[in-house]
Design brief:
Blueprint (H helix, E strand, L loop, with lengths): L2 H18 L12 E3 L4 E3 L6 H6 L1 H20 L4 E4 L2 E4 L22 H9 L9 E4 L4 E4 L27 H27 L17 H12 L34 H17 L6 H27 L14 E3 L5 E3 L2
Antiparallel strand pairs: 1-2, 3-4, 5-6, 7-8
Length: 335
């Protein structure tokens, strides 16, 4: 083949490739609106009705292809970074507000420990879900069923030196676990109450095996102040120390106060009572009353029509006074 024939063949192949793949440059009369945050492209240009009627599917496919090409052109203008073997871009914040079926979920409120850890800069270390067991020589779960701390695996327990040798160590360990579970559940409920800004009840005096001095004083204080007089008339032991800063003082409003404060208090009570009542929809009530009146009027009208079509609808012919028909048809006088 001559050089001219080779050049013609290359140009012919290039022309065929251009026809097969369209250009990335798209020209539109009105600029296409692109929202990169939602990967959305809105084309406000009017449709060409002639091309639309000739071939509906191809025409709509070409418009969708042009809008997609413009969207990808804008994506490649964003800063690119590689994650492992993929090339990614960070999308900006969306500008188009899309409707949602449900409200946006709120963030879970932080617990007391999370707030303390954030304040002190404590970072939680993520532990593995499984640990190596030297006895079984295999990986077992850290918590839960068939874990390292499973009570069913402990067939032998060592009695501590300072413990009662006749004490059941298995029941003691089981009871300690139940107390830990109850304590965690109490902490969870208190976190929920604190997040909802409700009053968190105190736990009172928890039973312990070896209570210290402060716990004994607190028990004495709670037992004395559990009476109707709140411990006012209780006798004191000799040399009993005065315990302060325990419990809460009750606050009472003054008998003679401001009139405006009393009015606000009564108004809040009335608002609370009326808040529990269901609200009346005036429009719905009026429409219901009108509908009932129309139904009753239609029923009366229907009954009137039925009564007019009966046997008694025609007026009876007036009887001639003093006369009656005889068998032959002649009229005669009454005798």
């Amino acid at each position: 083949m001559d050089t001219s024939e080779i050049v013609d063949k290359v140009l012919r192949n290039a022309a065929e490739e251009e026809k097969k793949y369209k250009s990335i440059e798209v020209q539109r009369d009105v600029e296409v609106e692109i929202d990169l945050g939602n990967l959305l492209a809105c084309d406000p240009n009017a449709l060409d009705l002639k091309k639309y009627r000739v071939n509906k599917g191809d025409y709509l496919s070409s418009i969708a292809r042009d809008a997609t090409q413009l969207l990808f052109n804008q994506l490649w203008k964003l800063p690119v970074h590689r994650v492992e073997d993929a090339i990614t871009v960070k999308l900006p914040e969306p500008t188009t507000v899309l409707p949602r079926e449900k409200r946006v979920p709120k963030d879970r409120p932080a617990t007391k420990w999370e707030k303390y850890a954030k304040q002190k800069g404590i970072m939680n270390k993520k532990k593995s879900t499984k640990v190596w067991s030297e006895e079984e020589e295999k990986w077992i779960p850290r918590f839960g069923y068939k874990s390292k701390n499973d009570l069913k695996k402990d067939w032998l327990l060592e009695v501590p030196a300072n413990a009662d040798p006749m004490e059941d160590q298995f029941s003691k360990k089981k009871k300690a676990k139940q107390e830990r579970v109850a304590k965690n559940e109490l902490q969870r409920l208190r976190n929920i109450a604190r997040a909802k800004k409700r009053k968190v009840p105190g736990v009172g005096l928890t039973p312990t095996e070896k209570p210290d001095k402060t716990m004994v004083n607190k028990a004495i204080h709670l037992s004395k102040h559990s009476t109707a007089s709140i411990g006012k008339f209780e006798n004191k032991l000799p040399k009993e120390p005065l315990i302060k800063n325990l419990g809460k003082r009750r606050k009472f409003e003054p008998v003679m106060g401001s009139l405006k404060k009393e009015q606000d208090l009564q108004k809040n009570i009335l608002d609370g009572l009326s808040r529990n009542r269901p609200e009346m929809n005036v429009t719905k009530a009026v429409n219901r009353q009108i509908r009932e009146e129309q139904q009753s009027a239609a029923a009366e009208k229907r009954e009137g029509r039925k009564g007019g079509k009966g046997k008694g609808s025609r007026k009876a012919a007036p009887k001639t006074a003093g006369r009656k028909r005889t068998k032959g048809g002649a009229r005669g006088k009454k005798r």
